[in-house]
Amino acid sequence: MLTSRRQMMGWAALGAGGLALAPRLALAQTGGEKRFVFIIQRGAADGLNTVIPYADPAYAQLRGSLAIDVADATRLDGTFALHKSLAKVGELYASGQAKFVHAVGLPYLSRSHFNAQNVLECGGRKPYELNSGWVNRLLTLLPPGKGKAVALASAMPMAMRGSMPVMGYQPAQMADPEDELLQRLSGLYQDDPQLHGLWEAAVDVHAEVSDIRTGRSNSKVGTLAGTLLGKRNGARVAMIETSGWDTHNAQNAVLTKSLTILDNLISSLRDALGDAWKDTLVIVATEFGRTAAVNGTGGTDHGTGGLAMVLGGTIQGGQVISDWPGLSPSALYENRDLKPTTALDTIITQALSEHYGWDPEVASQTLFPRT
Amino acid sequence: MDAAFALNRFGLGARPDEAIPEKPEAWLLEQLDRYDPRPRSWSVQRPSAKIIEESIGLRRAAAEARGKKRQVARRAANRLALDSYNAAVTDRAFAAIETSTPFVERLVHFWANHFAISGEKGSVRQLSGAYEVEAIRPHVLGRFEDMLVAAEQHPAMGLYLDQTRSVGEASPEALRHKKRKTKKKLSIGLNENLGREVMELHTLGAQSGYSQADVTEFARAITGWTVGGYERGPVQDPARLGAFYFHPGLHEPGVRQVLGKSYAQTGEAQGLALLRDFARSPATARHIATKLARHFISDDPPPEVIEHLARTYLSTDGDLPAVYRALVEVGADAAAGTVKFKTPWEWLISSLRAMGLERSDSASFVKQTKVAVLMRDLGQRVWWPGSPAGFADTASNWLSSEGLWSRARIAQDFVGMTGRSPDPRELAAKVLPGSLSDSTREAVGRAESLSNGLALLLMSPEFLRRS
């Protein structure tokens, strides 16, 4: 089944580079004022447990204790199922407003968060090649006055930096430290008798309060973005940062939490956009995927091929798009990772071109210059 | 001495744009020749007399106005106190972030904390920056005695420790007051607050063996030391509005007996003679040596180091650079195996230095981020220790769960605050030369995002301490 599927969808192999091979995403031409939201998942989100390839015979074995049974997930098609924490995203899929693109990759393969995030955000061929972001360059393609942009982040993200003005908005002043930071600090202080106990006490005290606060503040970010984008003469392009994806240890609980937060964020964004949702395109992407196999600490390590999501009222038809490479030992990239078979930038270019009615070839020269 | 020790224990932490000193001791000592008492960051600080003049004007206007106008005037006076304070905290921070003489800037912070004022009173708060610029910075490389006099005679100190309220019991003003037949009489008399703290905190030290009588006598000797605009009784010298001056009408006449010695001087000279003797006392030498050793060597400094520094102090007549040289000389050996946990101020300043912050391109940081607010959140309000003893200089005072948590919250936001996003992997080796641990290097490299990588670096065990 997987093979036939692959033959059916033979497009956009990584490295082939030809946009002619890019899939049509079938976005609606709605006629309203277009909105675009880019949600970045910093830390390398685990695509394999988000959109689960349950029909791949190697999946359950590789994932071991982390493997998710299709019965505990939302079946998307004959091959893939969705993590149950993405319940509202699943509803979007069911109503034809979500597509998942599996086994995507960047033009520069690196297992370093910083390098890969730089490539993902700048759109260059290698890290630090460009010093502006593709979302900022996208603004140059919009009619004058129609490209108000906002970044909901404490610092201006690289993808939003460049010559076009972007408003920064920090949702919560002095938020509590992110879970990733907490865990890594716990690791750093572990052998430090002076710091260890004090730090663990601080984490304990704040854990309960922050759980509640995180859920609330993430819905708040979505609502805020939706409100800013929904307004007449408001922002038309937004970027939102999410974190908590670097699941090296005890992944199940962490991923469940991060996906729940993402799910709340997307649904609150949709709700706040109201009628404008039909004119909205949302792309969710991460810098790379995670190892195909579970590691020794109930988590996964830095991998290669990942997952992207294309959502919004502008999407017609739920679909998992993938030139699925398979998870058999010989199919894995460097014997450990899902092999990327689709270039993420072609997906982004194609989606944006269909959304805005651009010629993909022209748009790609601005968004992902390859010369 | 290795570079890490010089940069962190004696300096304020490395800046990525500055070379790692090849000869750490020489690097520290040559700073004594390059120090600028009035660097660019402090160039706009208004003199204390001007601030006091404006503030008194606003308070008077408030007192004379009625209803809403009074409220407006009162608010303007409060605003002045707060704005002056906030601006000065930022100026102080940038002087420290940008300086190329971090050892001497650290000494400025040390002495400002030794001669601590505290911002509870608006009248003191608004003078914080002017106090440091006028009383501390010019004398940090001079003689202790000169700094002592400058600090005790500064309006901020006079107001903070109630010296402006102190009137000699047998002074002309007190006698006149007694004769006056009014129903509501203000009490008028001696206030020992400044006198006691000079002896206990600024010079001799609490355990040095003076008596209550000594304190009272010294307090009497400095009656008449006042600030124009705040005098008890009639103004002696209207031209000195906002400035320190000696008011003979408030001074206790007569010879004073302090620590077994008679002081027959008259007027201002009497108090000055006492300060001079305090400054030259072995008790003061020991007190100062202990505090310096605690700051630079360890929370529990070795007695022989204290002894050595005290001897240097006494043999040079309180020449501070001579004491600093002695400290640098013995520092590395004496401090072997010790750690100093950074105070919130030290941590924030070293972090912003590590970020390579510069005032010229930090307009938004200055505008949006109040260093004063960050320091409040970190639990160490600048110039606001809440006590004339100043902030404690030992780890036990700063090591706490909440303290670490606040630092982590702020560390996570440094990229957003400063608009700078240096690669933390490159930065790590530059700002922790010789002290970067493998586990920190690894954690920084693996962080989920650049801002978390930076936060990890600045929250690493080695960065939280002055190696």
UniProtKB/TrEMBL annotation, chain B:
It comes from the Bacteria. InterPro entries: DUF1800 (IPR014917). It holds the Pfam family DUF1800. This is DUF1800 domain-containing protein.
